[in-house]
Design goal:
Blueprint lengths: L10 E6 L4 E8 L2 E10 L2 E10 L4 E5 L5 H11 L2 E6 L5 H4 L2 H8 L3 E4 H7 L6 E4 L4 E3 L2 E7 L8 E5 L2 E5 L13 H17 L5 E4 L9 E2 H7 L8 H8 L6 H4 L4
Parallel strand pairs: 5-6, 6-7, 7-8, 12-13
Antiparallel strand pairs: 1-2, 2-3, 3-4, 4-5, 9-10, 10-11, 11-12, 13-14
């Protein structure tokens, strides 16, 4: 697909780890996004290191499974970790938040509703509501998007949206019941209203398409963004016959 926007203008391999790799996406002239692929058993996750190019201050999104790969990415980029962003409370998104926050003496930003729902606790924990804040030149805007969990939150940083398990290039996160599925529909509608076409989507897992897809491309190919109402969406999201093996077929 031809890229005619100002989004991901460069993609190059930065470093090789024995098991995982980190890829740089130049999202804007001022921001770097480094993908760190990590895995434990069947759980394959995307961690992200977001770096302000001018100050080298950085935030880490949903760290899990492989501390060595994350430390190597920090060392390799010369970034200074100023905080950890957690999209939701599932263990594959919080696994290393506490240890890394202690190691780098930085805060863990986590949605307030998720802290309550999962009873998550850490000395460096800072609850997140809807107010934006900055790290260096990185403006971090939390967008509360419940459905997968009670307080799932996406983080918009420049032209990059970090979606956790809310939105994937090919679909959306699973929902435990009809009420949650209705919330997920509302959350996806909120993202559709908020995001520019050139916004890059960086999900917590990959099924096929690589992270960093433009939102207009996701809109064209993701059927979950085209249901007419909450009930139609919930009926499909909760349909029978979905196997956990298929739902966890990450790449």
């Amino acid at each position: 697909m031809q890229d005619r926007g100002i989004g991901c203008i460069v993609e190059r391999r930065m470093m090789e780890h024995s098991m995982e790799r980190s890829v740089e996406h130049a999202v804007t002239a001022a921001t770097e996004v480094h993908l760190i692929r990590v895995a434990r058993g069947p759980m394959k996750n995307n961690n992200y290191l977001v770096v302000d190019r001018a100050s080298r201050q950085a935030v880490l999104v949903d760290p899990a499974w492989d501390a060595d790969a994350i430390v190597a990415a920090l060392d390799g980029t010369g970034a200074v970790l100023r905080g950890i962003l957690v999209t939701h409370g599932h263990p594959d998104h919080t696994d290393l938040a506490g240890p890394l926050a202690q190691r780098y003496a930085c805060p863990i930003w986590m949605p307030r509703r998720e802290i309550a729902a999962f009873k998550y606790a850490a000395p460096q924990l800072v609850p997140v509501d809807g107010a934006p804040w900055s790290v260096g030149a990185l403006r971090i805007e939390p967008i509360i998007t419940p459905g997968h969990t009670p307080g799932c939150t996406c983080y918009l940083i420049g032209d990059a949206l970090f979606t956790g398990d809310v939105l994937f290039a090919e679909g959306c996160g699973i929902c435990p019941d009809e009420q949650a599925a209705h919330q997920m529909f509302d959350s996806l509608e909120r993202l559709k209203a908020r995001l520019a076409p050139h916004t890059r989507i960086f999900p917590g897992h990959t099924y096929g398409l690589p992270p960093g897809q433009r939102f207009d491309h996701v809109m064209q190919h993701n059927m979950y963004l085209h249901f007419p109402d909450r009930d139609a969406f919930a009926a499909f999201r909760l349909r029978k016959g979905q196997s956990m093996r298929q739902l966890l077929a990450f790449r």
